[in-house]
Structures are given as structure tokens and as C-alpha cells.
Amino acid sequence: MENKFSRAFGENGRLRDSMEWREKILDARQRTLGSEHPDTLFSMNELAASYSDLGRHQEAMDLLEKTLEANQRTLSGEHPETLFSMNSLAKSYRDLGRYQEALDLQEKTLEARRRTLGSEHPNTLVSMNNLANSYSRLGRNQEAVKLWDKTLEASQRTLGSEHPVTLYAMYNVACGYSKLGRYQEAIELSRKVLGGRKKILGSEHPDTLDAISALEYHNNELNKVRILSSVLTAVY
Questions:
Q1: Domain boundaries in the chain?
Q2: What's the whole-model pTM score?
Q3: At residue 14, does pLDDT exceed 80?
């Protein structure tokens, strides 16, 4: 019941209330169950997510490092909860600008999820997306786009074209195309993302608004190229 309260707060944008509930739940579980009980470790993951949502990335990272260490010790290196902690910790590293560490951890997570869940499981697809994000952050855009393309293809085949994971992959592919100067392709994909998010999430959802901003950005970049091309044509 308490977890339902914290999630309800988060879903309604009451992030601080959600965090405070999760702190209480964790404190209670540590007292009654111990610091390494699976429910306690789950609460640590949840609280770390709240810290991350509030921009408290260092606290999120510190908590997730403890959670991962405990999961590896008490469960196994490839238990789903351990891999979830690895994935979350990698995100915290990325949030703190520690991109190489994030990438190293994401490669391990993806390899383990492929081995234990299969190459097209939703969690595996999320790991593929995240690893591609890290490639992009490190300027390895060709590798990022190649992996995003694979993620998108698998997501569309197994989850459908309007599943959130598919739309997230599509959004990322569009951003990757834009970084490679493939603006028209980026625009076409961004329109699909926007249409899907409007239908599923509504026009005012933050993810929908983000899709609008991305589409505007890709259009602006294409217009810059066209203007420059016109100027060069006129000059030469």
C-alpha cells in the first residue's frame, strides 16, 4: 500500500512527496527486514529513482552502488534485480557526466540480459537503447545509430509501433540521424514519435512536449542547411 502511495505521488508530479514516502518505507524495511533483504534492496532502488528525478544524482549514485553491491553478494551477478541495479547505476553515472563508466556498465548489463532474457526481451531492448545513448554521448554516433536502428526494428516487431519503448527508440534514432546530418529522415521519424505520443500520452505530457521540441530542432537544422546551400549556390 505504501509503495502505491509513493508511485501515485510520482505519477501526479509530486516528486518530493514520493521521495519522502520512499525514505520512510526504506527506513522501516531496514529496521524490520535487515539491510540486505530483497524488499529492502527494492526500496533502495525506488528511493534512488526518486533522488534522480529530483536531480540529486550524487545521492542516487551512492545509494545504487550500495544496492548493486548487496544484490551481487546476496542474489547473483545475473539476477534480474542485480541487472536492474546495474542499469540504474549506469544512468546515474551518465547523469554525473561519467560517460565511460556508464558505457562499461551498460555493456555488461546488455550482455547479461541477452544471455538470460533473450535479444528481444523488453528489458534487453531498454539496455540497447541506453548503451546507444552512451555511445552518442561519447561522440560515437555511427555506433549509436546502428544500435538504435536494431533496437527500433526489434521493438516494432515484438512490442508494436506505439509501445513506449518503441517510441523512445524511434525518438533516439531521429536524434542520431540529425547528428549525422540526415535531417529529413530525422524529421520523418520525429513526426511519427509525436503522433504516437499524442495518441497515447496526450498533448500536454512532458514526453509529447519533448517530441515537439525535437521536431522543431530537426526542422531548424534542415532549414540552416538549405539556407547555406542557397548562399553557396548564389556565390559560386
A1: 1-139, 154-236
A2: 0.80
A3: no
The closest of 226, 118, 211 to 173, measured between CA atoms, is 211
Distances (CA, A) of 172 to 51, 136, 158: 25, 10, 18
The span from the CA of 126 to the CA of 166, in Å, is 10
Cell numbers standing for residue 214: 525535437
Domain 154-236 has CATH 1.25.40.10: yes
Q: Which amino acid is at 178?
A: S
Question: How far apart, in whole angstroms, are the C-alpha atoms of residue 138 and residue 135?
Answer: 5
Q: 1-139 and 154-236 share one CATH topology?
A: yes
1-139: what fold?
Answer: 1.25.40
Task: Quote the strand ranges of the chain, DSSP E.
Answer: none
Among the residue ranges 62-76, 100-114, 135-149, 222-236, the one predicted with the least confidence is: 222-236
Q: Which three cell numbers stand for residue 51?
A: 533522488
Distance CA 57, CA 50 (A): 10
